[in-house]
Design goal:
By secondary structure, the protein is an alpha/beta fold. The chain has nine helices and ten strands. Strand 9 (about 185), helix 8 (about 190-200) and strand 10 form a beta-alpha-beta unit. The two termini are about 25 Å apart. The relative contact order is 0.11.
Amino acid sequence: MEAAARAGFAVETDVRFTSDGVAVLVHDEKATKGLDCGGQEIRVSDTTWSQLRKACRSKPTAKDPKTYQVPTLDATLEAIAAASPTAWVFLEVKTDQTAAQRRAFLAAPAKYGLADRTVVTSFERSWLRAIRDADSSRRRMLFVSQQQVPASQLKSDRLWAVAVEQGIATPEYLKQLRGIGVKVMVWVVNDPTAWAKVTKLAPDLLMTAYPAKYQAWLAGR
């Protein structure tokens, strides 16, 4: 994430809370879906930060054989802020936060000067409404997948952006979304064929796992 920020890209990640209220970057409630937890059954919300840090590490990959401890939200935001004065951060709410968790979640970017470069995202409209009620100034983005949600239904949510899964991203739907005054992202677009198709839609934002490759592809068109 630091490397992405230094290279000028935005960073997208997922946020959950441990049982003792620490915000961590883990995609699934069942941590073992993406992490090596030594054979233990670990559920993030039932585990303290100390236990999670000791039990689970990232899995090695072909490109990086090292393993890493689960990062906290605070440490990650601090590192991104230090790496770049311009990088944006997209934080996905992965759980129905308590009021205390929501306050901590919203306060974290401001600690590191990132409040104006942070977008809160979710697949759950009700969770984004709760964020809006807690801080109406915070940018919010809804992920839409599998089936289009009519733009007319989203207008009252007062979103900053809507992220549309590439399989349901059509010119007419993006036009309707822009008609209610939101930015449009298309996700996740990871190969040249998809890049060519989605670029024709001219979204405001594009999410890809390979931003440097996408940048090179754009330059070489």
